Please model this.
Amino acid sequence: LVSEEAAAIAYLEEYDKLTADIHYQYTKAGWIYETNITDETLANMTDWSLKLSDFKYREAKNASRFDLSKINNKNITRLLRKVMNIGIAASPDTVKLKKISDIEGEMAGIYSTAKGCIDVTTCLPLEPDLVNIIANSRHYEELAAAWKGWRDASGKKMKHLYPEYVNLLNEAITFDGKYEDMGDYYRSDYESPTFESDVRALFQELAPLYENLHAYVRRKLRQHYGADKFPNTGHIPAHILGNMWAQDWTNVYDILAPYPNKGSNYTITRMYKVAEDFFTSIGLNKMPLLFWQKSMLVKPIDREVICHASAWDFGNKRDFRIKQCTTLTDEQLLTVHHEMGHIIYYLAYKDLPYLYRDGANPGFHEGMADIVTLSFQTPEHLKKIGFLDDVPAQNEGDINFLLRMALSKVAFLPFGYLIDQWRWSVFRGDTMPDSYNEKWWDLRCDLQGIFPPVERTNADFDPGAKYHVPGGVPYISYFVSFVAQFQWHKALCKVANISGPLHRCDIYNNTMAGSRLNDMLKMGSTRPWGEAMLKITNGTDGQTNKLSAAPLLEYFGPLLKWLQENNRMYNERIGWDKKKCPNVQ
Ligand SMILES: C[C@H](NC(=O)O)C(=O)O
Ligand SMILES: [Zn+2]
Model:
């Protein structure tokens, strides 16, 4: 009699090959669609997504024949559970699954081909045109036109699709009774029953830092745009923060503090080479030749593409790509490092069983994508790589540098937190279609302290104006990433014996830091993520296997002190009226 375990091992070996092959086909179909949006490429992608669902459904049935209670090898049972954890593919109703793919394809198509009109004759794509207006214009009305134009052309156009999308996802995911709703399924990636309350506690711990940054930025923007633009509720207009979603404020740094513009002696390829050089300097992998041959690094001129930057693992251990409509800005240099960080993670775990080729949790993959940005943005480093012509060290003191980092790493926190607060409440049925937009602005006004520059009603669908909502991509992973990356930065700087304040630490060229990081990366998702966290933080002054806001607060400690003094000196109110939102019905 073949033991249950031996039979399971034989099955998993066969499964590993089959799943890699079909995922290769599915990923290739996705790539062909995203880099050339047509009816045919959409149909082909939908066809492969249904083939993949069929495969998952069939193999989940096959794997369920094993009696897990008779297998005490934790690795085998973890793999078998992953074969059976198939999300919405658990639904046998392939008509509904096809409908879900069709709606997703339609929403992604609307989002990626939308042209926002800034006046009666000028309609522009999001990237790079509208993004550049929001980043560079300093005219209130021009910014408002781009902000409104984008939302009218994207979210508003897909509003009618979202209610059915939510219902179909919930029907499919609750079919086998494992999950309460689609939000419950998304959260299960973190393998923790307390995950939702853990992230809420982290957010509350970080709120005072955000509120002090918000107060300072509001005062400086009020000086620039005039007090009449700022309601006495304390909110900041959503469209003057340099980013279409007000999630990253680095583009208005020039209003907030004097700082030289970025160097012009850069090319797109050099941006990628600089990023690669950082990873190889700490002992991590180079990009494979295929990466340079197959990636799409600039926006094509002859076809519609999905411009939102992304990193791709084709599942055959060789083919890894980035798709990015790269432009020459420092925000984009961050994104280049971000997407390449994903590729480094893929390369670190590429020889694991397919089921383990994943981040320890989704936030870890995003955290790895960002971790080097905490080192490479130090002024000394930027000068070293020539991205800055000259860093006026006397102006670029600690506070200016920390302020700049806070405009991306602190400003983001409420946004990274709130998207899935909205989405989870929709999947739970707490937020119904007739209050989608109202709930969205409740959260944006309450947690981010911003308000819409033009009237919003429930005819609008502003969540749909952010890529990840029509894209069906979870977002809490970015919030988790922003917390975890500072834990890792602190630990790696300790391992690298780099002393001094955390925000001045640069692990460039430090292979001890790189090898400690790689120890975590090569684990993939073989173990629950707390063990992966310990792999990095182990033995570095009291960090544990949990998420902790302490390293982020330590990194920005000097800035918080300065902000509190500055806000007090100008008698600037901290915070805003959380339950009042101007311009929202
Ligand atoms: C932070 C997130 N990054 C990403 O999608 O890669 C975003 O762009 O909204
Ligand atoms: Zn990412």
